Amino acid sequence: MDMPSSDKDIPSAPATPNGRQKTNAHSPARTPAIIVGVLAVAVVALSVFYLLRPEPLLVQGEVDATRLDIAARVDGRVKEIPVQRGQNVAAGAVLVQIDNPETLAKHEQMRAAKAVADAQLANVLVGTRVEVIAARKAEMERAQAALVLAQKTFDRTRTLTEQGNAPQARLDQATDALHESERAVDQAKSAYEQAVNGYTKEERAIAHTSVEKASTDIQSVQSIIDQLAVYAPVASQVYQRNVEPGEYVSPGVPLVTLIDLADVWVHFDLREDLIKGLKVGDRFDVRIPALADRAVTVEVKLIATKGEYASWRATRASGDFDLRTFSIRAYPVQSVPELRPGMSAYLDWRSRQ
Question: How far apart are CA 207 and CA 125, in angstroms?
Fold first, then answer.
């Protein structure tokens, strides 16, 4: 095997015109400097980006729902409360049962009065009994017979008085007896006609009115009895029981508080400088922290017609003058069963579109 015998056999680097050898231009020592420079440029770019981008304007709201304070229209003692707090109740479910013995007794009294009025009306409509008519006719016939006798007595007495065989006083007595008999006949005849004709139209109207009044009284008391049971107006959830069995309650005092979870919305109090361009029907997404920051699309359905001074603002106040706040209601576009009143909601107002 041949081996090189001297240094002249080893190739050498080409020489430069000044007689120095040429070295490699990309030295490994310059690589860290390039990396540091790139990182510095990136840091500067990110700093400029974060400094120049618009600051988020967070608006916070609160989930709310329809609240129903159910009160009674009658007084009495609470007999039973068949619902518990947190229970879902259907529309028409009994919430509270009230006991009022006085009202029940009054209802029975009104029913008895109605029975009396019905009997009086039936008596008026049937008319006069046959036996009464016969008795009135007999009385009229007796009065007519007495009148005939009184007329004959008067005629004889007058003849005797004219002949001088009877005193004038006897004639006067016969005259008075005749007049009394005539009046008796008139009375008996009127009583007989009244019995035949029966009750008058006005008496029938009075009897009908008495029955109607008794029926109205029963309905009035029955309406109070119907209010002894307090019902749920809509399907909802029991939020609070304000009374317990045995307590005495008065009309208008809330007994049970319900929350209608089917009517849930997000409530915002916005400064007046933020509602520019906002209109009913606008949609945007809000975040719900209680639902793992879930995004919920809501639609604006109510913007208050009048602003109010607010002691609490959902966003940072700006300027050196008071800004009114307007109440906004935004309803979820799709039902979110997990939403509960009191949950917080927020969004970046500038980027809501």
Answer: 9
pLDDT at 353: 58
Report the chain's mean pLDDT, rounded to a whole number. Answer: 82
Other beta carbons within 10 Å of 335: 10
State the residue for tokens 């129903």: 68
User: Quick one: which of 347, 341, 349 has its CA closest to 296?
Assistant: 347
Contact 303, 280 (CB under 8 A): yes
CA distance to 98, 108, 150, 152, 162, per residue, from 166 (Å):
90, 73, 17, 15, 8
Task: Pick the closest to residue 350 from 55, 61, 60, 63 (CA basis).
Answer: 55
Nearby residues of 37 by Cβ (< 8 Å), 6 or more positions away: none
How far CA 179 is from CA of 47, 145, 168, 193, in Å, comes to: 133, 14, 17, 21
Q: Give the integer Cα–Cα distance in Å for 297 and 286.
A: 6
Tokens representing 329 are 């209601």
**Coil vs helix vs strand at 289:** helix
Distance of CA 36 to the CA centre of its chain: 72
Q: DSSP assignment, residue 352?
A: -
Considering only residues 298 and 154, tell me which one the structure prediction assigns the higher pLDDT: 298
Which 3 state secondary structure label does DSSP give 106?
helix
Confidence of residue 211 (pLDDT cuts 50, 70, 90): very high
